Automatic annotation (TrEMBL), chain A:
Belongs to the RNase PH family. GO terms for biological process: exonucleolytic trimming to generate mature 3'-end of 5.8S rRNA from tricistronic rRNA transcript (SSU-rRNA, 5.8S rRNA, LSU-rRNA); nuclear mRNA surveillance; nuclear polyadenylation-dependent rRNA catabolic process; rRNA catabolic process; TRAMP-dependent tRNA surveillance pathway; U1 snRNA 3'-end processing; U4 snRNA 3'-end processing; U5 snRNA 3'-end processing. This is Ribosomal RNA-processing protein 42. The keyword Cytoplasm applies. It is found in: Cytoplasm; Nucleus, Nucleolus.
From TrEMBL, chain B:
One of its GO terms (biological process) is poly(A)-dependent snoRNA 3'-end processing. One of its GO terms (cellular component) is nucleolus. The lineage of its organism: Eukaryota, Metazoa, Ecdysozoa, Arthropoda, Hexapoda. It comes from Arctia plantaginis (Wood tiger moth). Keywords: Cytoplasm, Exosome, Nucleus, RNA-binding, rRNA processing. This is Exoribonuclease phosphorolytic domain-containing protein.
Automatic annotation (TrEMBL), chain C:
It comes from Arctia plantaginis. It is found in: Cytoplasm; Nucleus, Nucleolus. One of its GO terms (cellular component) is nucleolus. Belongs to the RNase PH family. One of its GO terms (molecular function) is mRNA 3'-UTR AU-rich region binding. GO terms for biological process: exonucleolytic trimming to generate mature 3'-end of 5.8S rRNA from tricistronic rRNA transcript (SSU-rRNA, 5.8S rRNA, LSU-rRNA); nuclear mRNA surveillance; nuclear polyadenylation-dependent rRNA catabolic process; rRNA catabolic process; TRAMP-dependent tRNA surveillance pathway; U1 snRNA 3'-end processing; U4 snRNA 3'-end processing; U5 snRNA 3'-end processing. Residues 31-166 form the Exoribonuclease phosphorolytic domain. Keywords: Cytoplasm, Exosome, Nucleus, RNA-binding, rRNA processing. InterPro entries: ExoRNase_PH_dom1, ExoRNase_PH_dom2_sf, Exosome_comp_Rrp42_subfam, PNPase/RNase_PH_dom_sf, Ribosomal_Su5_D2-typ_SF, Rrp43. This is Ribosomal RNA-processing protein 43. Pfam families: RNase_PH. It comes from the Eukaryota. The keyword RNA-binding applies.
Length: 410, 310, 285
């Protein structure tokens, strides 16, 4: 049973509300008057669900699965034809149990899906991008003054803040001349409703594992440059990744921000070293400018390739994500030459794969995987060049001008 | 590190005696050279592309009698045991899940690794293996058939001699089949290790170790694990660590695909054997039950006669 | 049919068997299950053994490490025994830290080994106050089919018996340690403690002692695991522990002690034969 509610033309776009319910009809009484007043709140007069508010939603689709409360499924399909924004709705039930409904899983009609799949097939996506184009992003480095290096990246609705901390450590016995690097991901509970409670832990663990694997090889990041005194002391980099907002395509954003933060990292020079028996006593330079920068040109970038139809796209929008069941994540080493001044003219080395992983519940055919991998390497190359250009420009600006910052942290 | 009061702990500063032996800390070149002998054969006499023969032993009641389904996979020295339990409601969640879930836990026995003693508490590698196993199994299981329930898959690695994850996937696939969990296809997996231009199929622990150590020169190195649903020709998980170029990856994919298909007859044999055994056991039980019933009936007749006579 | 009966009338089902002087798996009250032992099953461990006793299977692996001895006991090494009951072995256990029953079993096994004094800890010391062996003995239960402690002790003793310690040279001046794995010495053992579990069931007005109970029988008799564990070393009783279950009479006790003593001898023979076979095999190869 489908009930069509009156459409309004507020703000120049049509608003269509579609409510599907049958068994819940007696229990659920939808007061539709609020939709006309700019979609501020939806109220249910119901034994189990008392009220929930949608604030500032432009276009949305809510799939409420009341498995525990109603044992029924209610679909609210509010469509406005604009960009989608993830929102978090908390439903307060009388027994004070907070249920969180996630709207990231967008529901599309079969026709809309076909439209997206056909677009991907012809390498022309619904927002005008080609299959290997990213959406515009904002990058800012040196945002946290207490960290050795930091960066903040915003890609569409995804917002990531990365800080690098340095500490002196003892190298592991089987790798005496190498430093250490460790990744820690923290998913802020505000980033997406899924992260509430312990929801973000799995994802955080997955991302840090992926990064650890991507940086495992010395061809990705040469850990020898972190060695201070062979077998005795080395630098350990703690890369703390804070996910402020999650709007999809998290791995790519994180890897970009990590590389930018590492590029920005300064390691103090050692002024003097004293040998005291078997121990080494180090004296570090106090001057923040008396420090060295890391060579991170070859640090890997992660590219998520979302499988739609037989083809793959990078940086999928929320609609595109809902057309896909599996994505391939490839980690590809960067091009070191691009990160030196005037290095563009030099010969470029082909990137190498440092990790490949799959995410999502589906599976894919061997041929698709091969195509995805070769597509990933092209996308990564373009992305790395763009990142190098932005980082070099930022560094230049820092030297010549007084820094003009954009972010909220300054 | 907080002290674990639930177990007996040794002294904190204890180190494996192997650290003080002569063989410890061999330079990379020597380790690399040791992998192949003059005849281009590996330490255990295999050719580069030769997998260790699969001697699988698989049984329901013999391996873990308390579990719904269980499997034991042994590939030369690598020994893995896996058990699967009845579905139970997903604990600690307040949202209805339309798809059933698979909970995987991979654990190394403390004595399973040749280089060091494993801690009791799960470490990062075990957690990563658990996630990889779950991802590999998910596409193979008909999860929509048990909504809001989870199936527990526990894997214990008793001895680690390379290709752990792929054999854990093989074992888990068999155990799931044994536990009669509905699946789209059997699931098989295989591993290769790459060092330079050499590709080791089904590597041993020492081969994996060399492949994961970063070399001085800019050569390809790494380990790839691929799991497949062979009948449907679908890749369910692909995991790669190390650094290699695109050509090497595509080459490796072809080899892995072939290896995965090679295992299928072994897996099928085990499943069929298990099925036949189960069928025969059931037939035997039914026969016994019929005999008992007949015995009971004759006794009843006798009593009836006695009663009637009395 | 019998499965249904077992589920609906668990106590009556069990009583029916007991009244006929037979156990549900067909054994008589004082009959134990066969022991199958496989020595040196795990090559990555320094010593190992796998035991199968009915459905119960336990694997033990020993890892050798070096450490400085404790300040209060400078001439003693370490013997660390732990029993692991992973969720894999039974649906009773959940993933996470060790359950109560795993801790209890660990404690029982550790007590038995320490009380029996079968390993002299001073033998494990290399240089007093400087260097000593640490023997990490981890017993991993693969299938919990009852009488867990018995199986753990047998596999632990079999592993300890095959353990060989490499020679260590310690330079007191440079504190340099060198280990030579080519020259190995056997660990000295003082006897061979063997534990025997009993379940005590109260049927009508008599007490029934079941030797080597299965996990089903243990459940029926109440309590976690077996009710009575007796341990003999070289013909002497070295440990006796009673947990829950029914009370039992003096003549029952005498009978139990006799059975435990006989079983200790039997198990010792099994271990000896297995190790002899294993050693002759390794020598010929």
């Amino acid at each position: 049973m489908v009930q069509q509610l009156p459409t309004s033309n507020k703000g120049g776009s049509s608003l269509l509300v579609q409510v599907q319910y049958d068994q819940v009809k007696e229990k659920c009484d939808l007061l539709s008057k609020d939709f006309d007043t700019g979609l501020e709140s939806v109220e249910f007069c119901n034994k189990n669900i008392s009220r929930f508010n949608l604030v500032g939603i432009e276009a949305i689709l809510i799939r409420v699965i009341c498995g525990l409360v109603l044992q029924n499924t209610v679909n609210y399909n509010i469509y406005k034809g604009q960009t989608n924004k993830c929102q978090n709705i908390n439903v307060l039930t009388p027994d004070r149990r907070r249920l969180t409904f996630v709207m990231a899983g967008l529901l599309l009609s079969p026709t809309e899906k076909v439209f997206i799949v056909h677009g991907v097939q012809d390498d022309y996506r619904s927002d005008g991008r080609s299959n290997i184009d990213y959406r515009p992003m904002e990058l800012e480095t040196d945002v946290v003054s207490h960290a050795s290096g930091s960066a903040r990246l915003r890609l569409a609705n995804t917002d990531v803040l990365v800080g690098v901390k340095t500490e002196i450590d003892i190298p592991s016995p089987d790798k005496p001349n190498e430093g250490k690097i460790e990744f820690f991901v923290d998913c802020s509970a505000n980033a997406t409703p899924e992260f509430e409670g312990r929801g973000g832990e799995q994802l955080a663990l997955g991302i840090s594992n992926l990064l650890q694997r991507a940086y495992h090889s010395s061809q990705a990041l040469d850990l020898k440059q972190l060695c201070i005194f062979e077998g005795k002391q080395c630098w350990k980099l703690y890369v703390d990744i804070l996910i402020l907002e999650c709007g999809g395509n998290l791995c790519d954003a994180v890897s970009l921000a990590v590389k930018a933060a590492l590029f920005n990292t300064r390691i103090p020079f050692v002024k003097a070293a004293l040998m005291d028996g078997g121990n080494v006593d180090l004296q570090l330079s106090d001057d923040p400018y008396d420090s060295k920068l890391l060579n991170v040109g070859s640090a890997p970038l992660l590219v998520t390739l979302c499988k739609i139809g037989d083809k793959c796209v990078v940086d999928p929008s929320a609609e595109e994500e809902s057309c896909s069941v599996i994505s391939v994540i490839v980690g590809i080493t960067g091009i070191p030459n691009c990160y030196c001044d005037g290095g563009d003219s030099l010969e470029e080395k082909e990137g190498k794969f440092t990790t490949i992983d799959m995410s999502g519940p589906g599976s894919l055919a061997p041929k698709t995987l091969k195509n995805a991998v070769s597509q990933g390497i092209i996308a990564a190359k373009l992305l790395d060049k763009a990142l190098a250009k932005a980082l070099l420009r930022e560094r230049q600006e820092n030297v010549t001008l007084k820094k003009h910052s954009y972010g909220f942290l300054k | 590190m907080p002290q674990d009061y639930r177990r007996f702990n040794g002294p904190e500063d204890s180190v494996s005696y192997k650290r003080f032996t002569k063989d410890y800390l061999k330079p990379y070149n020597i380790l690399n050279d040791e992998l192949l002998n003059a005849k281009e054969l590996r330490q255990d006499g295999r050719a580069l592309t030769e997998a260790r023969s699969m001697c699988m032993f698989f049984a329901t009641t013999q391996v873990v009698s308390q579990a719904k389904g269980s499997a034991y996979v042994e590939r030369d020295k690598t020994k893995i045991i896996c058990s699967v339990f009845d579905p139970r409601e997903i604990p600690h969640q307040n949202e209805f899940s339309q798809l059933g879930q698979i909970y995987c836990e991979v654990k190394f026995a403390t004595f399973s690794c040749p280089r060091k003693r494993r801690p009791h508490a799960p470490d990062a590698e075990e957690k990563a293996l658990s996630v990889a196993l779950r991802k590999a199994l998910e596409p193979a299981v008909c999860r929509h058939l048990f909504p809001n329930y989870q199936v527990d898959v526990f894997v214990y690695i008793l001895e680690h001699d390379g290709a752990c994850l792929s054999n854990a996937i093989n074992a888990a696939g068999l155990a799931l089949a044994d536990a009669a969990v509905p699946m789209y296809d059997v699931i098989t997996a295989s591993t290769i290790a790459v060092v330079g231009d050499k590709i080791f199929v089904d590597p041993t622990e020492s081969e994996e170790y060399v492949a994961l150590t970063s070399p001085e020169t800019n050569i390809n190195h790494g380990v790839i694990i691929l799991s497949m649903l062979p009948e449907l020709k679908q890749i369910s998980d692909f995991t790669h660590i190390g650094s290699m170029d695109a050509e090497c990856i595509t080459n490796a994919m072809d080899i892995l695909e072939k290896e995965c298909i090679k295992i299928v007859p072994h897996v099928q044999k085990v499943i069929v054997a298990n099925l036949v055994k189960g069928f025969e056991e059931r037939k035997k039980l039914e026969k016994e039950a019929a005999e008992r019933e007949q015995l009971l009936n004759t006794k009843m007749e006798e009593w009836k006669k006695l009663l009637n006579a009395g | 049919m019998s499965e249904v009966y077992k589920l609906i009338h668990p106590v009556k089902f069990f009583n029916d068997y007991i009244s006929k002087n037979v156990r549900p798996d067909g054994r008589s009250f004082s009959e134990q299950r066969n022991i199958k032992l496989n020595v040196d099953a795990i090559k990555t461990a320094d010593a190992s053994a796998l035991i199968k006793c009915g459905n119960t299977s336990v694997i033990c692996g020993i890892k050798l490490e070096l450490a400085t001895p404790k300040a209060e006991e400078p001439n003693k090494g370490f013997l660390i025994t732990n029993v692991e009951l992973p969720p894999l072995c039974s649906s009773k256990y959940r993933p996470g830290p060790p359950s109560d029953s795993a801790q209890v079993t660990s404690n029982i096994v550790s007590d038995i080994i320490n009380n029996s004094k079968c390993v002299d800890l001073t033998d494990l010391c290399i240089v007093p106050d400087k260097l000593a062996w640490v023997l990490y003995c981890d017993m991993l239960c693969l299938d919990n089919g009852g009488s867990l402690v018995d199986a753990c002790i047998i596999t632990l003793m079999a592993s300890l018996k095959t353990l060989r310690l490499p020679t260590v040279t310690y330079d007191p001046e440079t504190e340099d340690i060198k280990v030579d794995t080519n020259v190995q010495t056997k660990l000295k053992l003082n006897g061979l403690p063997i534990a025997t579990s009993f379940a005590i069931y109260k049927y009508m007005d008599r007490n029934v002692t079941l030797v080597d109970p299965s996990s089903y029988e243990e459940d029926m008799c109440g309590g976690l695991g077996a009710n009575l564990i007796l341990c003999y070393n070289k013909g002497f009783l070295c440990s006796s522990q009673k947990f829950g279950g029914s009370n039992f009479s003096v003549d029952c006790e005498e009978k139990a002690l006799k059975i435990a003593k006989e079983r200790a001898q039997l198990a010792e023979e099994v271990i000896d034969v297995c190790i002899k076979n294993y050693e002759s095999k390794t020598n010929t190869v």
